[in-house]
Each structure stands twice: as structure tokens, then as C-alpha cells.
Amino acid sequence: MIIETEHAPILSMEKLTMSYSGTPVLKGVNLEVESGQVIGYIGPNGAGKSTTVRILLGLQQGYGGTARLFGEDIKTSGIAYKRRIGYVPETAEVYDMLTAREYLVFTGGCYGLDAVKAEKKGQQLMNQFGLANVFDTRLSSFSKGMRQKVLIIASLLHNPDLLFFDEPLSGLDANSVLVFKEILAKLAETGKQSFIPHTLWTSSRKSAIELSCSMTDRLPQTGPLKN
């Protein structure tokens, strides 16, 4: 059962710790995030950004502390909360032999969308990202940047309440970065939340970000991002 009150944060971490082979990666991370925020989780390589995301997604075991999504402790919860999440990993494979249309319809089906709705939403987002002319092209011919766009589109199909984008700007051209920022801003306006680990946030600092979490020695320093 999802325990969500009117004032419960959408995402919270309390004294979150994680070590690999005795080496600390996270040292007592504390963070609460309300709905309608875009979170830039910033830090150098190896600071624990991707590890944090894996914990929050329920993909990482062996951590200490408490992580909650929608008010529910993910250690003891079921999988219902995951239906409200969209995720783009730092590196991911797509089904090369499928066209973009086929891949998005397939992904939408995994989220419970019927083919018509998934295709319509996918085509709309493909248009926004400048990929309308390759909707029926096999993904095997797509560049890294084009694949990244398709992965972002796939994560948005089911209208999730919480999105995790791990290094989402990798391979994106300048225009697509602007489109991505506009989408984040619109999502925030409707109460959606985005959590974005990123090594450098230079090209996105002026997006609709209300709070940043900068990793310093695995301890987060939080505050509003300044343009």
C-alpha cells in the first residue's frame, strides 16, 4: 500500500549510506523533495550519483538508512510505486531491429498503455525532438544522440509522476537540450518531479530547477541553483 499524505515529500532520503568493498560511496545523505521540482544532483564522477538513483529505483541492495518514494519505504514496499516512475539510465540498449514506432509501442505496452495511445504520444514527442521523419526507421541506424532522445521519449509515455534521468544530455544537440528543458519545465508546472544526476550542469542551469544537490565528499549540499 502506498502511504502518501498531503504534505509527504515525493522523494526523501534519510541517513542514506552505501559502500563498495569497504569504500564509502554515500555518507549519510539526507534530502526531501516536494512535487513540482526539478532536482539537479550534481557531482564529479564517482560521487555516488548513479548509486543514489539505483537505490531509489529499488535496483541496489545493501544500503543503509531510509529511502522513500511517495511516502513509502522502498525496502518494505511492493512494486506499485514503480508504475509512477520514468527512468532513463546513463547507458542503455534499445532493440535495434525495431523501428522507433515499434519500440515506443512496445515500451508503452510494458507500462500498460494500449498501442494507439502509445503510438500517438510517441509520435507527438518524436515531433518535438525533431525525429518525425525517422518514426518508421530501424533504431540500428540511429546515432547515439538519436537513441538518447528515443529513451527519453519512452520514459515519458505513461505520464509518470517522478522521472529519473541519469546524465540525460549526453549526445543531445543544442536544440534538443532546449526541448528537453522545456519539457522539464512543463512537467514541473503540473506537479511532476524530475531527479537528474549530472557531472556538470552548465547547459541546463537556466531550466526550471528549484533545488540542487551538490555532492561534496559524498555529503550533499543543497540549495537553489543560481543562473
UniProtKB/TrEMBL annotation:
Database matches in SUPFAM superfamilies: P-loop containing nucleoside triphosphate hydrolases
Pfam families in UniProt: ABC_tran (PF00005)
One GO MF term: ATP binding
Entry keywords, A to Z: ATP-binding, Nucleotide-binding, Transport
Domain ABC transporter: 11-227
PROSITE patterns for the chain: ABC_TRANSPORTER_1, ABC_TRANSPORTER_2
Top-level taxon in the UniProt lineage: Bacteria
Transport in keyword set: yes
Coiled-coil annotated residue ranges, if any: none
Protein name, per record: ABC transporter ATP-binding protein
Biological source species: Sporolactobacillus inulinus
